[in-house]
């Protein structure tokens, strides 16, 4: 749910999700003629974001947003994904809780995505409302927070990785670095418009961090990882919110809101309005996620797949857009401290079980992000160890 959200946590206090890695869709391999002043001006306008293009009244997709025919999204069937009831996970009845814990473990193993209901304490309506009002601000106000630096702790931007994307994505975003242990230190750097943005978004971030801790505690329990060491590190780890806007698109069949990617952290918790668009790859097909009203979508990130030694799946997902309705979503990406080297948990390497992943850290991920080329490559693939055939 967005690599643009990655921040240099070593210089600020806070993965996604940064987030994440892109399956690059296309790249130029031949030199283009020198750009004319008119084309340079058009490029400038495109990098101001898709909200800006819509406000200019465009009726056709600019060429930089048009995917090659082979990469254009085909219609995907809607599908419900596993439902985890937090009320049952909190149940004092041991059998009821055990059944829900097993269901969550299976969802992380099989699809890497599930939806959470009865979560409580997360004010979704207020968060979506202030997000809509931010993207409705005048362009001059929004672009005050624009930066080409993917490490910036607060950043308004467009596409996926706008300076490197061969084809731009139909998406604008606001990235906010959240430090779970020192939230009060980072909030003053956030936008002050709308007037209630800082209050609403910081309250949502705190509630989201509490939910993350509850879910990751359950996941560790399901894997048989005991002790509070990892949980204590996660309490002082990284949290980032990617607030996304996918405006109605004049030609939605020619582009994507976000390209196929996976998230780099432990867990991503996604809040979205009632406009569907998230699609998940189950290993064979793309499936349109059809969430329950009020549910939050949760997915496994690369760090958790590595930490689980492959028991849990971090899978590719993408975002479709439509021609009639704007879509708002908020992806909250959670992981360990940026300086922490992440490898398979020792408890999961007992009894001769082979290690399946190389160690990694944020610096390794950022290096990969800046150098990756070609299609069908993800950061996770770069960390897998090829085991000898038995």
**What kind of oligomer do you see?**
single chain
Count of discrete alpha- or pi-helical segments spanning 4 or more residues: 12
Spans where pLDDT lies below 50 across 5 or more residues? 1-33
> Span between N and C termini?
36 Å
Structural class: alpha+beta
CATH architecture: Sandwich
Kindly provide the radius of gyration, computed on alpha-carbon positions and rounded to a whole number of angstroms: 20 Å
Number of domains: 1
Report the strand count: 14
Give the helix proportion (percent range). Answer: 25-40%
Sheet with the most strands, sense and barrel status: 8 strands, mixed
Major sheet: arrangement of strands? 3-4-12-9-14-7-6-5
What string, H for helix and E for strand, traces the elements in order? Answer: EHHEEHHEHHEEHHHEEEEEEHEEHH
Q: Name the shape in a single word.
A: globular
Query: Quick one: CATH class?
Result: Mainly Beta
Explain what you see.
The protein has 390 residues and is α+β, with helices and mostly antiparallel strands. It has a single domain (3-23, 47-338), classed as Jelly Rolls (Sandwich). It has helices spanning 37-46, 50-55, 86-89, 94-110, 124-135, 139-142, 183-186, 197-223, 229-235, 302-307, 362-371, 379-383, and strands spanning 20-22, 78-79, 83-85, 113-117, 154-158, 172-178, 238-246, 258-263, 267-272, 278-281, 286-289, 296-300, 317-319, 327-335. The strands form 2 sheets. The chain has an 8-stranded mixed β-sheet with strand order 3-4-12-9-14-7-6-5. A hairpin with a 4-residue loop joins strand 10 and strand 11. The longest helix has 27 residues, at 197-223. The radius of gyration is 20 Å and the shape is globular.
């Amino acid at each position: 749910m967005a690599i643009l959200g990655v921040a240099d946590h070593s210089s600020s206090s806070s993965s996604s999700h940064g987030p994440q890695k892109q399956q690059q869709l296309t790249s130029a391999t031949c030199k283009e003629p020198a750009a004319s002043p008119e084309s340079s001006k058009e490029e400038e306008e495109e990098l101001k974001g898709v909200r800006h293009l819509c406000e200019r009244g465009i009726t056709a997709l600019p060429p930089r947003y048009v995917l090659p025919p082979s990469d254009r999204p085909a219609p995907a069937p809607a599908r419900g994904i596993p439902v985890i009831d937090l009320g049952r996970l909190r149940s004092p009845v041991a059998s009821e809780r055990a059944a829900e814990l097993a269901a969550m473990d299976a969802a992380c193993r099989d699809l890497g995505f599930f939806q959470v209901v009865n979560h409580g304490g997360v004010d979704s309506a207020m968060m979506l409302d202030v997000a809509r009002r931010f993207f409705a601000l005048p362009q001059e106000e929004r672009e005050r927070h624009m930066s080409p630096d993917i490490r910036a702790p607060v950043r308004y931007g467009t596409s996926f990785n706008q300076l490197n994307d061969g084809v731009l994505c139909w998406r604008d975003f606001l990235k906010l670095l959240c430090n779970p242990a020192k939230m009060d230190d980072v909030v003053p750097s956030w936008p002050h418009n709308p007037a209630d943005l800082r209050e609403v978004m910081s309250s949502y971030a705190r509630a989201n961090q509490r939910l993350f801790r509850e879910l990751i505690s359950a996941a560790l329990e399901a894997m048989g990882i005991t002790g509070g060491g990892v949980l204590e590190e996660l309490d002082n780890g990284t949290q980032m919110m990617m607030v996304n806007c996918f405006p109605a698109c004049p030609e939605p069949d020619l582009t994507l809101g976000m390209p196929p990617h996976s998230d780099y952290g432990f867990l991503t918790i996604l809040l979205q309005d009632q406009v569907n668009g998230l699609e998940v790859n189950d290993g064979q097909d793309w499936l349109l996620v059809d969430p329950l009203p009020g549910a939050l979508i949760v997915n496994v990130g690369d760090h958790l797949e590595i930490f689980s030694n492959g028991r849990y799946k971090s899978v590719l997902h993408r975002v479709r857009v439509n021609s009639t309705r704007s879509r708002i979503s908020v992806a909250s990406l959670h992981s360990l401290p940026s300086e922490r080297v992440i490898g398979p948990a020792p408890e999961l390497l007992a009894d001769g079980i082979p290690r399946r992943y190389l160690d990694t850290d944020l610096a390794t991920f950022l290096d990969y992000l800046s150098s990756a080329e070609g299609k069908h490559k993800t950061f996770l693939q770069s960390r897998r160890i090829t085991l000898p055939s038995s």
